[in-house]
Write a structure and sequence with these properties.
Elements (H helix, E strand, L loop, with lengths): L3 E2 L2 H17 L7 E7 L3 H17 L2 E7 L5 H12 L4 E6 L9 H7 L11 H6 L10 H11 L9 E5 L6 H10 L3 E5 L6 H5 L4 E4 L17 E4 L3 E2 L5 E2 L4 H5 L4 E2 L6 H16 L5
Parallel strand pairs: 1-11, 2-3, 2-4, 5-6, 5-7, 7-8, 8-11
Antiparallel strand pairs: 9-10
Helix pairs in contact: 1-10, 6-7, 6-10
């Protein structure tokens, strides 16, 4: 039987309905999310528009701050410091990629941790070791939300995370450890990847390599979360998972696009409301 598709668009829509209720509970005072972008990136522009539409639906005002491509790291940090000090700003995010010469870690560290709605400040990342923080990394939190949407009890499951990035791989591994899943993290140094993925009940793939994981690499019935976003040979957006072959083996599978992406945006809005004082 083909895998059940985890519809990220539907899950994100359901989340936004709940977030709207939480936002209304905060009263009429505006809740502002500020997006900072250095230079113009067409791909990022599409993502920002999606964020703006979702924010409007939830009742969050999203301000877009476009800085010239010549902006230096010091100027960007100064902009972030100004936004961090504004009482009317609930959340701040910096769009990627950043131009050469600007260190993303320096930039992320400059954001007030209480307004770091991407969940990437060292203080928020470090908090994951103790518990799930109130502002977790959005993509990792989205991957976890999709896994939980299967209704599967994670205690005692075998999870394999393919990719060890700070944005997804490492945080999702720790988040699932909190759920008492047994987690293995694979990366470029891993030998015989298939030996790991074939025993996994849950596979999270986030490496940025189109079609890396095929159906013959999976345990029948596995839950497969594809975080990858790549441009295929025909120009279409594809994930890190070969969708056709994996669908014949997996029990649950996220599509690309329409899987992790929409839920990541919903998590960004959830973090913004939490930063504004909502319990959601």
């Amino acid at each position: 039987m083909p895998a059940q598709i985890l519809d990220g668009k539907l899950i994100a829509q359901q989340m936004r309905l709940k977030l709207r209720v939480a936002r209304d509970g905060l009263g009429p005072c505006p809740i502002r999310l500020v997006s900072v972008e250095v230079g113009q990136n067409p791909a990022a522009a599409v993502y920002v528009r999606n964020q703006q539409r979702a924010a409007t639906e939830v009742g969050i005002e999203m301000e877009v701050r476009n800085l010239p491509v010549t902006t230096t790291e010091a100027q960007l940090v100064a902009t972030i410091a100004e936004l961090s000090g504004r009482a009317d700003v609930a959340g701040i995010l910096v769009q990627r990629p950043l131009p050469p010469g600007i260190d993303p870690r320096t930039v992320q560290s400059a954001i007030d941790p209480a307004k770091d709605v991407e969940g990437m400040h060292p203080a928020n990342m470090g908090a994951i070791l103790y518990r799930e923080p109130s502002l977790p990394p959005c993509t990792a939190a989205a991957a976890q939300q999709l896994i939980l949407a299967t209704g599967r009890d994670l205690r005692g499951t075998e999870t394999v995370v393919v990719g060890h990035s700070e944005i997804v791989g490492k945080p999702i591994a720790i988040l699932l450890l909190h759920r008492l899943s047994t987690v293995t993290v694979c990366h470029i140094g891993t030998k015989h990847l298939i030996e790991h993925t074939r025993r996994a009940d849950i596979v999270v793939v986030a490496v940025g390599k189109a079609g890396l994981v095929h159906g013959d690499m999976l345990k029948p019935g596995a839950c497969v979360i594809d975080v990858g976003i790549n441009q295929g040979a025909d120009g279409r957006i594809v994930g890190d998972v070969d969708f056709a072959s994996c669908r014949e083996v997996a029990g649950f599978l996220t599509p690309v696009p329409g899987g992790v992406g929409p839920v990541t945006v919903a998590m960004l809005l959830r973090n913004t409301l939490r930063a504004a004082g909502a319990t959601v």
